[in-house]
Known about the structure:
It contains 12 helices and 11 strands.
Amino acid sequence: MSRAKYTKKCSGEPVARPKLNIDIPWSFPYVFAWQNVMFSQERSRNMKKRNLLHMLMALSFLFALSSVSLGAEVYPRKAIQVVTSNPPGGVVDMTVRIMAGSLQKNLGVPIIVNNMGGGGGVSGTYYLVKAKPDGYTIGSMSSKEVVILPATIPNIPFKHTDLEPLCKYASNPTLVFCKADAPWKSLEELVADAKKRPGQITYGATANSVSHLLMEGFLKDAGINMLHVPLNAAGQTITRILGGNLDVGVISPSPLVGQLKAGTVRPLFITTEERLRTFPQIPTLKEKGYRKPVLTLYMGFFAPVGLPKSVEETLKKAMAKTIKEPSVAKKLEEVELILEYLPGPAFAKEIDESYRRLVQVVKAPAAQK
């Protein structure tokens, strides 16, 4: 250092310091550290952005699923109306009220029975056919409404296929009988006599009822002809038989229990597959070598065509569960009805077969009298 510079330094005056060059070797570690920090911060920000994007996508997906779930209605959520085309107090009405009590418990909503009589059953049936297929209007119909009406009434506003069968749940057998002192001790003797005297032996049944058309189907199968006497009620049939003014009666067994126990009438056959437990002495038509009756009085649940699959399955499961309850079978037996379950497809097949056979019977001249 020169003397001038030394003197200047000693005198206390500021001395110019040399500037540091950033490229000198000792600065490298700090630069690299700073760059790593900046890179790490950028990478962290990018990861946060990606995580936020993924979270938003997941929330959007969950929201879409929840929207679908909220849009799908839980069934059932309100009372269900069960339409019947029969007046209160009749056999079909009794059966649906027995079923409604347990069905209400299994579905968890009130079941309201709506008796829509009128028009011989046409009004209530047509109402059900035209009802909205949402599961909140279903019907309890008998073979009269779903088979006899479309087979026997011209220009009726519905067909036998216009309702969706959910299940068959009960049947009411038909009994053919005569007075205890009648000349026929068995069905075979009655058939033999009818062949000798065609059209001379009388039988009583309500016109175009299950009893009437069932008997006409039997006469066709047996190759005989008997004279039909139209009557209005089972009581009238019993009175005429006991009074000797009618040869053969065709009714359900329940009004005849007292006479069967007293022995004042003689049963000739019953339409059940097996003998009745309460009256095991009555032979079945099947035992006598004849085919299944053209028609029997049965009851089942129906819905308008077009029921959503999930609703249909809910109803069918609840109905199957109801039918399995011991209390239901017991209550049906108390009113002389038989618990007879058939799932929807098998029930639809039986209805179709009954309809086709009945159409042939109705075409026969004897059935039109």
